[in-house]
Design brief:
Blueprint (H helix, E strand, L loop, with lengths): L8 E5 L10 H11 L3 E4 L8 H18 L3 E4 L2 H6 L4 E4 L6 H8 L3 E6 L2 H8 L5 E4 L16 H11 L4 E3 L8 H6 L4 E3 L2 H4 L4 H14 L5
Helix pairs in contact: 1-2, 1-9
Length: about 220
Amino acid sequence: MSTKFLPAGIYGITAEKFSLGRDNVTVAREMIAGGVAVLQYREKHDRKSFRAMYEECLAIRRLTRESGTPFIVNDYVELAMLVDADGVHLGQDDLPVSAVRRRVGDKIIGLSTHGPDQAAAALEEAVDYIGAGPIFATRTKDDVCDPVGLEYLDHVIHHVPLPAVAIGGIKINNIDRVLALGARTVCLVTEIVGAPDIAGTVRQLKAKMERNSVLP
């Protein structure tokens, strides 16, 4: 098991479908300006060509390198390697973690989990952090599972010795419930990418984390 650290703060994910007509690079630039702790590129090949995704990731890699923001690519291991991303995030049905670890070396690997059994299995894998969710109902992804609730997040925070990012249906009006359990890294997707002022929304969320003593 690797021991890389998942920064406390807002974990931003691109979602062009919900970005009010703005492209992923524009959204990424605004999220960085607002101060996201981590930025993940999430796009699907059925919506965009691999060439277009590669070009976007190259641009975002430049932005994240300039800002010192960890850059993660969702699903596509080779894409992550080609643009020298900091890591890759996998789902339960993606390539096996062991195979990906052999390909990416010491880069970051994140793994989505949806229940205690999957979290326990992640402890046996060479993952650096896990995603815990969806906490609340969400329609951001077409293949999303039913919400796992705050109970699962509480289990992860208190019983799973891996850094975790809380994700799924989290909004400005319910993030306090997530933070109250002790979550240090929180992902909001549509709440950020669908905001008229992306950078301002990230700053507002960070302020909430500061008031909950998550950030200094």
